[in-house]
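Single-chain item
Fold in token form
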Amino acid sequence: MQLRRSKNKMIAGVCAGIAEYFKLDPTIVRVAYVLVSIFSAAFPGILIYIILWVVIPPAE
């Protein structure tokens, strides 16, 4: 199974694609991503999300 953005998307499908790859609930991945982005000064969440949006191919 290859990592791809999901069609089950809120913005770009990055978190949902990661959730599908690891067989997790997309809501859990989204909440974890937001919490890590907010509480970690060393984790530039928006920049990482945009990079993943460009790098991860879309769902077929």
About this structure: The two ends are 13 Å apart (CA to CA). The chain has one domain: 14-55. The helical segments are 14-21, 26-39, 45-55.
